[in-house]
Batch of 2 targets.
Target 1
Amino acid sequence: MSSENPTDKFDQIVAQTRINREERDKGYRERALKMYPWVCGRCAREFNRENLQELTVHHRDHNHDNNPPDGSNWELLCLYCHDNEHSRYTDSQYAGGTADTQKSITTHNPLADLAAMLKEKE
């Protein structure tokens, strides 16, 4: 029987998991920051070196292991918009749908008749 304390083993596993996550995050975060402008994809807030830590990389499909080299699964979001996106995703999961299903429900397009309205004014 091992003399190692189960709590110590758990702490080691948690610590190693955090290290692995930070290494993985650093890799795709650095790539995303080189690829995309430092602007939140939702609220358009601009970032600079002083506040760059508040700009996060969001995985569009919510799979943090899906990191294609072209960055097609990433978007840069500020902390607030990122938190809101994950809250919306969680809420949609509880409602029995997916975030994609929730997005496709929108039916109102306020600019749908804009071209016709502009033609009428000519």
Note: Residues 101-106 have pLDDT under 50 and may be disordered.
Target 2
Amino acid sequence: MALVIHELATNSLKYGALSVDSGLLDVSGTSTDSEVCIAWTERGGPSVQPPEDEGYGSRLINRSVTGQLGGMIVTDWSSEGVIVTLTLNAKKLAA
């Protein structure tokens, strides 16, 4: 999970909301006995466009979330800012 957060933060610092003074980042979460949902929401940064290729960081995030943590990832490439929603298996996250 630490690598996933690190990769999201690095991308935000390089290309997203944290790359400009006016950018905002909101990270929020909810949980149940079976799953943990984390919403990473960026606003106020440069205009967002989906990448043309899946890079190393995206592959790392996808493999970690879907493979190791038994979850899923949804990315909304809104022009106002990227929104990444991680839904994770609570039991695998706690292990």
Note: The chain has a mean pLDDT of 93.
